[in-house]
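Following the same procedure, sequence and fold were stored together, as reproduced here.

>
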Amino acid sequence: MTVFVFVVILVLAVLVYSASVERRVRRYRSNTAASRHLVTVELERRYIQLEPFIAAIDLSGLDPEVVRQLVGARSWSKAVRDRGLGLAAQAAAENALSAAVHAVLSESDTHQKLKSNWAFQGPARDLETTEKRIAGAVRVYNDNAYKLSMLRSSFTTKFMATALKVADPEPFVEHVAVASDEHPEDVPA
């Protein structure tokens, strides 16, 4: 009788633990999908806000090379997204676009007449806010993707993740090639 009770308790504990793991895996998968959608929404917001910003830049008299870089980075970013080249390629394109936006904003800080030009400052402030929102959304997505990846690789939860067919999420970061040890003099300081 005691062995039977022990077996029943053990089976119930395993079932409760399995249900808990399943709920956690489903929650992390849902959070990862929702945070990726949030990144997409914020990137779309930036594309919309870039139109009036670029129009204001054209009238501002900023360095044309900086403006060309911004327009080129926007085109590259849009092309990567439209072709669905993957999250690493999209992250590289979006990072280039963010760098171009920040270059224009820092260039505009040196022009005194732009500081009082509301036609430029309005879109610039909106874009600065969106850039912060994008950074936050990417951080949340990467955190959720990391948690889901850890669930997929942990010994106690990987069986449930495999049973639920959870794919390994790709982080939203640009992959940088690691410098080799063969030629240490080629590594920039």
